[in-house]
């Protein structure tokens, strides 16, 4: 492939383009009218407008994307994540047009895109499953009976889709019918499919996922795990690699299970097998994401493998250039998703203009973003601004570097998750590694950010006072308060 089209926007589009450029491959950007001046449009060798701002009329239009590909002479399409990245129908359209999708086969997408068929495939390799239904549940009476058999609390989950939609926790039998109706309604609204299944609710789970990579010759490897347990609204905010709770033996078992899950659907390219880990460190298959994950940078940092380049090589028909035994974990990496959200207001989106936007730098810091100072955060798409990634020789250094990077990251004009990220990094539960997916509900209150802000104000006042006393005493020694002041102001909405 000499030219590829990136069917996405923002930071992931730029991320793919940079690796492609290093491989000597030309890139084509697609953009909506809202993204006309976006960084990925300027970075690409060519750019094609594919429609109005709403995603349904632009980034979700497979026909427009394929036409843009044919028009520019691109041979392949990289879908990034989100949008059409896990759409089997789109994958078939790409194939029918004589183009290459840089991703798995439509068949693999189809199997793993439905939680029930994914579980069935994984069961062929005896991968551990949370006790529950093996088929979609439609009859409420039957469903309630099965739920009682499993034992409360139970989890009702949409068979299609993800992101926490169509998911309901039911604590007792008397709430079942109401929650079942709500889950079915939400699943139908979000995915056009009201089918749900039931499984035992693991009360204190860790969310552990394994990165896998397969080629067209039957070679499949895993690139170790990511711990994605710090979440809000069932969606990840902070991820790290490796996990602080996995032993060498458990890592090997989970890695082998992930490889087998990929093998069950003849998987090619980069994918992620997700597990939950209970309080006894028993793991259970959750689902498989048939695309590149948002949090893939932490895996790249600890393995030294560029996953985008590997995706492209596999799509070109090349075998994997390394084996499982070649892969080693080196150091520790943490990612904070920097969202345009207000953590003090239930993490609601807070779009606006990036009046000040200065990214952190220095050893062990990586920023994948798609914005620059003066740009607006559009209302039409996911509110993620950037992925802030730290790397250290061990977990302690990675945490320290993340705190330093958060302090250096200056964003004025909107509220962000930066202050929340600092709260997590400094919390005893996270530092000790003793936390689960309920971290936010257990430990975080909006007041914590106000306390943090007040402490910063007090420090500034103390420094100003000290400077005043020094000057009154005739001591001309200067006290620089600007770094502290900039840290305090960086997340203030002006």
Break the fold down into its secondary structure elements and pairings:
Blueprint: E1 3-6, H1 10-22, E2 26-31, H2 39-43, E3 46-49, H3 62-72, E4 76-78, H4 88-96, E5 100-101, H5 106-113, H6 115-123, H7 140-150, E6 154-158, E7 167-170, H8 176-191, E8 196-200, E9 206-214, E10 220-232, E11 235-241, H9 248-263, E12 269-277, E13 283-289, H10 296-303, H11 307-315, E14 332-339, E15 341-342, E16 348-349, E17 356-358, E18 365-369, E19 384-392, H12 395-408, E20 410-412, H13 418-426, H14 428-432, H15 439-443, H16 446-472, H17 482-489
Parallel strand pairs: 1-2, 1-4, 2-3, 4-5
Antiparallel strand pairs: 6-7, 6-8, 9-10, 9-12, 10-11, 11-14, 12-13, 14-19, 15-16, 17-20, 18-19
Helix pairs in contact: 4-5, 5-6, 12-13, 16-17
Strand line-up of the largest beta sheet: 13-12-9-10-11-14-19-18
Low-confidence stretches: 476-494
Total strands: the figure is 20
Structural class: alpha+beta
Taking the alpha carbons of the first and last residues, their distance comes to 47 Å
Q: What's the name of the CATH homologous superfamily of the largest domain?
A: ATP-grasp fold, B domain
DSSP helix fraction: 25-40%
Compute the number of helices: 17
In short:
With 494 residues, this protein is α+β, with helices and mostly antiparallel strands.
């Amino acid at each position: 492939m000499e030219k590829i089209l990136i069917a996405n926007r923002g930071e992931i589009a730029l991320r793919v383009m940079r690796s492609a450029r290093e491989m000597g491959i030309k890139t084509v950007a697609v953009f909506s009218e809202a993204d006309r001046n976006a960084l990925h449009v300027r970075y690409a060798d060519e750019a094609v407008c594919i429609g109005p701002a709403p995603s349904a009329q632009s980034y979700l239009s497979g026909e427009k994307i394929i036409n843009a590909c044919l028009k520019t002479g691109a041979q392949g399409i990289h879908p990034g994540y989100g949008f059409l990245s896990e759409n089997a129908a789109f994958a078939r359209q790409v194939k029918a047009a004589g183009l290459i999708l840089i991703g798995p086969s439509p068949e693999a997408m189809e199997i793993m895109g439905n939680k029930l068929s994914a579980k069935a495939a994984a069961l062929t390799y005896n991968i551990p499953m949370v006790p529950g239904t093996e088929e979609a549940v439609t009859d409420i009476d039957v469903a309630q009976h099965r739920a009682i058999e499993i034992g409360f609390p139970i989890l009702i989950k949409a068979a299609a889709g993800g992101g926490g939609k169509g998911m309901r926790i039911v604590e007792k039998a008397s709430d079942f019918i109401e929650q079942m109706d709500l889950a079915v309604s939400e699943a139908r609204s979000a995915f056009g499919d009201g089918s749900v299944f039931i499984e035992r609710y693991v009360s204190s789970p860790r969310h552990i996922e394994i990165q896998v990579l397969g080629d067209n010759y039957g070679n499949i490897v895993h690139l170790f795990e990511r711990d994605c347990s710090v979440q809000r609204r069932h969606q990840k905010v902070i991820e790290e690699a490796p996990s602080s709770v996995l032993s060498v033996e458990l890592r090997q078992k989970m890695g082998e299970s992930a490889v087998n899950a990929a093998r069950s659907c003849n998987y090619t390219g980069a994918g992620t097998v997700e597990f939950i880990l209970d309080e006894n460190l028993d793991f259970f298959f959750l689902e498989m994401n048939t695309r590149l994950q948002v949090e893939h940078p932490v895996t790249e940092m600890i393995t030294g493998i560029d996953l985008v380049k590997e995706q492209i090589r596999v799509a070109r028909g090349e075998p994997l250039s390394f084996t499982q035994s070649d892969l080693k974990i080196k150091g520790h990496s943490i990612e904070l998703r920097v969202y345009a959200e207000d953590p003090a207001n239930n993490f609601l989106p807070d779009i606006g203009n990036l009046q000040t936007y200065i990214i952190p730098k220095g050893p062990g810091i990586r920023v994948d973003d798609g914005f620059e100072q003066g740009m607006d955060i559009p209302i039409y798409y996911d509110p993620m601004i950037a992925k802030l990634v730290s790397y250290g020789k061990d977990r302690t250094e990675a945490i320290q570097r993340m705190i330093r990077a958060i302090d250096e990251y200056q964003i004025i004009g909107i509220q962000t998750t930066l202050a929340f990220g600092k709260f997590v990094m400094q919390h005893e539960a996270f530092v000790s590694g003793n936390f689960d997916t309920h971290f936010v509900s257990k430990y975080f209150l909006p007041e914590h950010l106000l306390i943090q802000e007040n402490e910063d104000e007090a420090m500034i006042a103390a420094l100003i006072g000290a400077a005043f006393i020094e000057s009154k005493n005739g001591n001309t020694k200067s006290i620089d308060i600007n770094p502290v002041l900039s840290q305090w102001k960086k997340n203030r909405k002006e």
